[in-house]
Amino acid sequence: MRAWPSPEIPTLPVAGPPVALHDTVTGQLVTTRPEGPARLYVCGITPYDATHLGHAATYLGFDLLNRAWRNAGHEVTYVQNVTDVDDPLLERATKVKVDWVELAERETELFRQDMTALRVLSPAHYVGAVESIPDVIELIERLQAAGAVYRVEDDLYMSVTADPAFGEESGMDREEMLRIFPERGGDPDRPGKKDPLDCVVWRGERPGEPSWESPFGPGRPGWHVECAAIAMRHLGGDFDVQGGGSDLVFPHHEMCAGHAQVAEPGTRFAQVYSHAGMVAYDGEKMSKSRGNLVFVSALRNSDVDPMAIRLALLNHHYRSDWEWTDAELWTAVDTLADWRRALALGAGAPAGPVVEEVLAALADDLDAPRAVAAVDRWARATLGTDGLADTSDPDAAMAVLTVIDAALGLAV
């Protein structure tokens, strides 16, 4: 599948520090130490609607990680999937009377346009569920060989108990898992399952639904096995970071890890599991089911500067839960105007401290608000809004402009 065009990252005169990231498994800050290219997998969209600000916040968060690694001198292999066949997509297509392939292609293209406008670095491998089916089949066969798969009517399930580490990624007890599982695509009450938490890896053909031939009969992949197969194919085992929204901790990331770890005993799926917070609107988490969505494309089409959208999102730490308001956007618009006035002067307050602070902040669990505050202090000092203007560094604007672009992804 085609990704979007990736913006160039300017070269910084100094290297960023090693990148530390909060690990969901341990609850601790972990310094990432990639051996060779840093390997990152971030779960992608199910393309049955447009990109909302909750999606954008997640992908911007991991874009900061991608940039921080690159600024620290690492190459990065970034992989993202597109779940271009799944129940929500098929249900939406039926409801609006549109071919499911046409719907998936249309919304994926809109997502590409949104990511391009927000200057998110594109993945090296952007892989759809449909094109990953050969890898999914191979992974299921490995799970079968391990004795971890069983049949319920035309569907195949994986036994979660086959993975001795099941539950370690999320840290949830069984009661909490059973509460959440049906809310997030699980079917704990299905007769014939060995364990209510077992997840489907191959969904047998249903009338009117797309299906593909396989050694298990016609059907299509389960959600979790899709991501596991794509990650294993392009990143191998024990890759550096598995990322996504906090709503993916369980069951999605727990199940992905289980599939990979049963298929390759003794290997962890990922070294670090990192999760972005949820964005609310009108008092509730932004979601399609609630209908309280603010779409990136709608903001762009109303002549809002995409850099203001990006800055508004960067004003919140990627792991925080927060609520979007129109005031967030207009504050970002005003901040960008101040920065641009300061940068237009050429000379400004000393750039060295702000460059150092921005890189240090982003290496410290992607602390974008701290980095934004450092740039804002520089702009105020340069413009003299807090007193006498400081234009003592003749090359300040270029240095600050470069770090804003390279580290924060803002074209100012």
Bin the strand percentage: 5-15%
Order of SSEs:
EEEHEHHEHEEHEEHEHEEEHHEHHHH
Number of helices: 13
Gross CATH architecture of the largest domain: 3-Layer(aba) Sandwich
Describe this protein's structure.
With 412 residues, this protein is of the alpha/beta class. The protein folds into two domains: 20-280, 3-Layer(aba) Sandwich (Rossmann fold); 309-408, Anticodon-binding domain of a subclass of class I aminoacyl-tRNA synthetases (Four Helix Bundle (Hemerythrin (Met), subunit A), Up-down Bundle), CATH 1.20.120. Helix content is 41%, strand content 15%. The chain has 13 helices and 14 strands. The strands form four sheets. A five-stranded parallel beta sheet has the order 5-4-3-10-11, sandwiched between helices. Strand 10 (239-245), helix 7 and strand 11 form a beta-alpha-beta unit. Helix 6 (223-235) packs across helix 7 (249-263) and helix 9 crosses helix 10. The relative contact order is 0.15. The model has no long low-confidence stretch (mean pLDDT 96).
What's the short version?
This protein is an alpha/beta fold. Helices cover 41% and strands 15% of the residues. The protein starts with 19 loop residues before the first strand and ends with a helix.
Please give the structural blueprint.
Elements: E1 20-22, E2 29-31, E3 38-42, H1 53-71, E4 76-82, H2 87-96, H3 100-117, E5 125-128, H4 133-145, E6 149-152, E7 155-158, H5 174-180, E8 199-204, E9 219-221, H6 223-235, E10 239-245, H7 249-263, E11 270-276, E12 279-281, E13 284-285, H8 296-301, H9 306-314, E14 322-323, H10 326-344, H11 352-363, H12 368-383, H13 396-408
Helix pairs in contact: 4-6, 6-7, 9-10, 10-12, 11-12, 11-13
